[in-house]
Amino acid sequence: MERRGKRAEHSNTDRWLVSYADFITLLFAFFVVMYSISSVNETKYKIFSESLNIAFSQKLASTSPIVPPNQPLVAPTQQRPVVTTLATRNKVLVDKHTAQLGEQQRKIEERMKKLANGLNQVMAPMIKQGLVSINQSRRGVAMDISASTLFGTGDAALQASSLDVLRQVATVLGKEDMSIEVEGHTDETPISTAQFPSNWELSSARASSVVRLMIDNGVPTKRLAVVGLASNQPLVPNTSVENRARNRRVTITIASPNLDRIAGVEE
């Protein structure tokens, strides 16, 4: 039988495409790297420049490094100025934050002082008679009003003679946006009536009467709170008629704004 002739091998003329594709890929990568290098973040560059200026402008306390015995002298590393710069920058941020908090606290204190002055003007006649006292503390402004000025004995209905001055107080407080807490206080003399079985009900009802008047005169309800404390927080010991009269009172506390909620600092 005759042997078949070997099939002629044809050369592949498209092999150059492999090298060409590799070359194009490398060329693309090269231009991507060049483009990324050419893009400069101006903000980061400015921070880096300022850090270098601060680092090289600081004077070191000693230019001679401390070398342990039998140890070769090693040149200072270049990282120390960077660490010093970061510490300096953090200190600047902390000082800025503290300064802003101090300024906000000063504004709050001025605002509360202005509020206290306004209440003092409104309540001046009663303050002179010793029926009202106004005190300012870190918590806010507290105004104690004698219960004998506002209510009859064992009663929680506001007397007509007290309505005008309370309306003036409501007008002053209505211009603010701070929380207001109205507390009712009694002396330790027990009460037991159909309307008020104990001093708890009496103190709560008296505080509620004052709050209702404030609402009727423009103070938003969401800013008000009523607390009945009976005889649990006396100003003075209940050892005399005068002392018991001082302890029977309504306290209106205007809370100082919360510093944590308004002290946002932008970095």
Largest sheet: 5 strands, mixed
> Rough shape?
elongated
Please identify the oligomeric state.
single chain
- Fraction of helical residues: 40-55%
**Uncertain parts:** 259-267
- Top CATH class of one domain: Alpha Beta
CATH architecture of one domain: 2-Layer Sandwich
Q: Which strand order does the major sheet show?
A: 1-2-5-3-4
Please indicate the percent range of residues in DSSP E strands (runs of 2 or more): 5-15%
| CATH superfamily descriptor of one domain | OmpA-like domain
Give me the count of strands.
5
Q: What integer is the average pLDDT?
A: 80
Description:
With 267 residues, this protein is α+β, with helices and mostly antiparallel strands. The protein has a domain at 106-259: OmpA-like domain (60s Ribosomal Protein L30, Chain: A), CATH 3.30.1330.60. 51% of the residues lie in helices and 11% in strands. It is built from nine helices and five strands, in the order ααααββααβαβαβα. It has helices spanning 16-38, 42-57, 80-122, 124-128, 147-150, 160-174, 199-216, 241-247, 259-262, and strands at 132-136, 140-146, 180-185, 224-228, 249-255. Strands 1-2-5-3-4 form a five-stranded mixed beta sheet. Helix 7 (199-216) links the parallel strand 3 (180-185) and strand 4 (224-228). Helix 2 packs across helix 3 and helix 3 packs antiparallel against helix 6 (160-174). It is elongated and about 120 Å long. It starts with 15 loop residues before the first helix and ends in a 5-residue tail after the last helix. Mean pLDDT is 80; it is low at 259-267.
